[in-house]
Amino acid sequence: MKKEELVDLLQEMTIEEKIGQLVQVTGEVFLMDNIDTTTGPLKDLNLSNKTLYQVGSILNIVGSEKIRKVQDEYLSKSRLKIPLLFMADIINGYRTVFPIPLAQGCSWDPNVVYHCTKVSIKEAGSAGASVNFSPMVDLVRDSRWGRVMESIGGEDPYLGQVFAKTMIQAYQGEDISKLGNVAACVKHFAAYGAVEGGRDYNTVDMSEREFRQYYLPAYKSAIENGAEMIMTSFNTINGVPASVNQWLLREVLRKELGFKGIVISDYSAIEETIAHGVSKDKKQAAYRAIMAGVDIDMMSNVYANHLKELIDEGKVPEEILNQSVMRVLILKNKLGLFENPYGNIDEEREKRILKSEENLQEARKQTAETLVLLKNEKEVLPLKKNQKIALIGPYGDNIAILGSWSIFSDKSKIQTLKEVFEKRMGTKNVLYAKGSEILREKEINQILSADGGNIIHVENEEEKENEYLQQAIEIAKQADTIVLAIGEHYRQSGEACSRANIEISEIQKRLLNELAKQNKKIVTVLFNGRPLVLKDISEKTDALLEVWFPGTEGANAIADVIFGEVNPSGKLTMSFPQATGQCPIYYNHYQTGRPHISNIRFASRYQDIPTQSFYPFGYGLSYSKFEYFDLKISSPKITENSFITVSIKVKNNSNRGGKEVVQLYIQDLVASSVRPVKELKGFKKEYFEAYEEKTITFEITVDMLKFWSEKLQYQAEKGEFKIFIGPNAEEGEETIFELV
Ligand code: BGC
Known about the structure:
Elements: H1 3-12, H2 15-21, E1 23-26, H3 28-31, H4 40-45, H5 49-52, E2 57-59, H6 64-77, E3 85-88, H7 101-105, H8 110-126, E4 131-132, H9 157-172, E5 183-189, H10 208-224, E6 229-232, E7 236-237, E8 240-241, H11 246-256, E9 262-264, H12 272-276, H13 282-292, E10 297-298, H14 302-312, H15 318-334, H16 347-353, H17 357-368, E11 372-376, E12 389-392, H18 417-425, E13 430-433, H19 441-448, H20 461-477, E14 481-487, H21 506-516, E15 521-527, H22 535-540, E16 543-546, H23 554-562, E17 626-633, E18 637-638, E19 643-652, E20 658-668, E21 679-688, E22 693-701, E23 707-708, E24 714-715, E25 719-726, E26 733-739
Parallel strand pairs: 1-2, 1-10, 2-3, 3-4, 4-5, 5-6, 6-9, 12-13, 12-14, 14-15, 15-16, 18-26
Antiparallel strand pairs: 7-8, 11-16, 17-19, 19-22, 20-21, 20-25, 23-24, 25-26
The structure holds beta-D-glucopyranose (BGC).
């Protein structure tokens, strides 16, 4: 459609039809045999039959057949026949599931993130999704927050920017109407990752400097790279919930960042401003949200039920409504839905693409890149295929390894570690015992009871626990290496999964403690959605492999690394704490007046734990051994319009080829406002042959030195800067240069 035709269409629409475009409901209602508005979800939403056939978009219905049915039903009764927009949460995969986003970021490789995203969306697109609620680019520092697992850039603004760009490009391509592309919805705007105490939905209150310095860059990058949509966050930001925050949405997002696409609220977030105590009722909530600039109301009924009244009373200018509706029409048009309301769907193609052998191979390859080797004492890894192992632990023969956003996944054919190990080593070489559950009955029920029912009961729990443990000890005795597969339950991380204690469960600790007494080598394979406190586990194991929630091909990818077919190369994107009480912990913190450098009393420190993290940002081992030396800078001075280069020699001092992520950090030594102790400004992931030495070079530009100054101006200030190049945020070579 041409722009003029869209304008004509808008003119033809009644106020109710316009409001409808800003309303999102679940598509299940259109799949009911009898669409009944007097009971069920429609009654709850207080939507009439007429309003229903005017809504603009549908949440989380995917699948060619369903989409065709819903679209047909809708169009058959809608007056203007404006097609519905189908939006979905395809976070780390549709039928084929890839590692959780936090894990994908640990590849430190835009190519890996691109391929994971592209395959997921190829599958979801073929099943009809037009808008995807991803990427999640919230900066995360507090692993008590369950949603750190969704963050693509972890605790770093630079990584957030890089991966936001990658993901938008993978989703949208050059032209979103083309087969295999969808519109991206970046979320959650803004600073959702900074919820106080890591408790989900909690308050966010931070200085504007902090917000601009750390939190804003990743959203900005997504917008600059053309993200079509943005989702507001649940939290308040400096006193005002994001979904009614005029400063945030009109000043920062629209004016400053120049965002032209659609703003959608998070799920019922507009209505929740009543609970926040900033709207007295639904009508005021609707007023505040539309005036702040939220175009689409996701799943609360406040726009559907109150916007008309607000417009009739002249409180909301019709022009504001028109602007929002136009944005929705423009996106539908860009997606080509007016010409073809079914988008990409094609039942035949869908069958061919979903979880195809090709996609599974891709998943296996990319997943191996996201695993992080945290410890490998005496090179216990890689294992040999002809040795005997005792595979123990609740994740040894478990397919629940997809993480919490795998709502559309196809769970058939997921292989367990046991199956994969047996295939590679032969059944005789793999002794297996479950060893323990992930959680005790009481703990799992604490989680499940919030779902309203669904709790479990375990007969003779204590007896079973002892039995499992005995079986584990017995098989441990018969092998010389134990592979211990433990971790978090998949329901312990994700939305509404904040934890006040981020350790593994007591029952798994007991298992580990008993196995540690057996005097065997222990290789721990850790499944989890967040950094955990690993001190105990690390001390009691010889090798530690962080595998996150690795997805459909997780077991194969883990075996690829464990048997050395793939040399691990992942590095952490979040610091791992020494203790839960150390959260939030992040490498790029500000300098204090009393830094803890030596053992003095009046320093910024905890008395009972070291000040640094347990495993730092950027950390991860390889089967190769990399050495860094000979840091050189092209000039000790940089001027406003010039650049300098800094290079370092990196040598793979081992007989194995492998990849290394070489990291560049900068510290501004003296400035008008306090600066972080170091900030990541670049990285290069390179493959090194055995014993190969390379010179890795970075360019330093003045842009990289800019920050939010005392007067909140974005600028670089003259003076000295320190450069660090190394394998993680704590090690490496350093030098100094000056901006003159
Ligand atoms: C989450 C969003 C998600 C939305 C739709 C909300 O609860 O916060 O991330 O996209 O639901 O499912």
